[in-house]
Amino acid sequence: MTRQIHVCVLGAGSWGTTVASLAAANAHVTLWARRAELAAEIDETHENSSYLPGMPLHSTLRATSSLEDAVWPADVLVVGVPSHGFRTTLEEAAKFVRPWIPIMSLSKGLERGTAKRMTEVIDDVLPGHPVGVLAGPNLAREVLSGYAAAAVIAMHDEHVARSLQGLFVNRVFRVYTNADVLGSEMGGALKNVIAIAAGMAEGLGVGDNTRAMVITRGLAEITRLGVAMGADPRTFAGLTGLGDLMATCMSPLSRNRTVGERLARGHSIEQITSEMNMVAEGIKTCRVVLELADRYGVDMPIVREVDGVVNEGRRATDAYRGLVRIAPTSEIHGVA
């Protein structure tokens, strides 16, 4: 007989909890929550009322607030904490991580100060492990409700990626593989910034034509930067590129789109973040993206306008006037 695989998911936010519940149907899963009362609720009632109220979780899912208890038995480590706490949490967990086990990121952000992707942070803290990312157009409540969806496991080692596929699939949740880790991560991180722009369009009532323009030109910006950094341009036409961008820009469940809508209504970024229960990664990511754009010589006017609203106190109406003044060039400039 073979021992059942043990999976540890760090982070009991909406997506970390959803991934843990998915995997619990296929493996022994322990979800780590920083707050003891949240861990107890998940473990005893199989609900997460803080982030997914009214959504039942898999009956075999276990939860704990002890990092050692969660991490030490793990054959696979999945890190689902936001980018701003990613390194610190991983450093706390590192002394309990067994050698050579695969480590996967769920975070769609970039580290402020270093502009590193989360897989690069994992390599910093725990070098020598197979590292990857699980990403795609995945709104937590819809996935947990059983709506059909798909994601990508991106890892350099495709053999390891294929071996991990079966941990997360079910009848309606499909998992593909991709060796382009850089492209898959950049698509997930950058789409949050474009979603803020799409939310501002919604809040301003500028029309579907304008919103479609922002989304498609946003994809061009994402692709330009990704290609300049060494990503495969085909990745941005897939689930972690266009797919994730569409879901995040179009759905009212999207945190980043909601931020954009509220900015358009005149709410301050301080007011928005203080009233949000979950992290909208695009707020912290837009300035880091501009740093990368400058480093690689890539023009990203939509990201620049979003950053002006988020970090420099400009109004959403000013941002859209700025976009109108941009002179168009070739539609595929920098993305071929």
Tell me what you see in this structure.
With 336 residues, the chain is of the alpha/beta class. It folds into 2 domains: 6-179, Rossmann fold (3-Layer(aba) Sandwich), CATH 3.40.50; 182-324, N-(1-d-carboxylethyl)-l-norvaline Dehydrogenase, domain 2 (Orthogonal Bundle). It contains 15 helices and 10 strands. The strands form 2 sheets. An 8-stranded mixed β-sheet has the order 5-2-1-6-7-8-9-10, sandwiched between helices. Strands 3-4 form a two-stranded antiparallel ribbon. The longest helix has 24 residues, at 181-204. The protein is globular, with a radius of gyration of 19 Å.
Element layout with pairings:
Blueprint: E1 6-10, H1 14-23, E2 28-32, H2 36-45, E3 47-48, E4 52-56, E5 62-64, H3 67-71, E6 76-79, H4 83-93, E7 103-105, H5 118-125, E8 131-135, H6 140-144, E9 149-155, H7 158-168, E10 173-178, H8 181-204, H9 208-229, H10 239-250, H11 255-264, H12 269-275, H13 281-296, H14 301-312, H15 316-324
Parallel strand pairs: 1-2, 1-6, 2-5, 6-7, 7-8, 9-10
Antiparallel strand pairs: 3-4, 8-9
